Model the fold of this input.
Amino acid sequence: MDPVKVIIFVAAFLLLLLLGKKLSGSGDGHDFSVPVAGSMPGVESPVTPIQADQDADADSARSRVVGADLPFPIKLPEIERNPDGRYNRPEFENYYFENTDLKLGPADPARFYDDFYVMARELENGYPVLYKYLVATPAGLQSAMATDHLPALYIDGQTVIVPRWDLPLILETVIKQIMKHYAEPDDQETNALPNEDV
Done:
């Protein structure tokens, strides 16, 4: 074999290898946006789309007890597919607070505020969806305003106000809001959560 052809072949191979490494970003991280309810065609939700670094949220949640570590505290209707191909609800995979451990709860159950996340998967297309809600007590909001010296507080997005820490109530309220967007106007009662106490 001609040595010139071998050298050209090796040089071309190395050039392509370097080019491929450069194009792949050499291991540099890139922003990753999880599809959020309201950002996918056919899925409407009042949840404001958020740019989420799902890995960072998941790492932060791993240091605390999260929903995937506990039995689901409320009864959900079975997943069913409607004749039009839509499902009655997503598959709920996990839920957690940004700072609060689900098992321990907040230091003061009557005075807290924290962001609450529900991770779900759309069954029609397999897309992950991350819902975000602010959950607070009135005293917790008042405490936040005093801490930050705010004369007024504007709450953007989804908010759940509870009188005190009650995880089943918080989760049930959020799940009901999510499931409202899966029900057609005439079947909202059919897809509602059961009224049984758990």
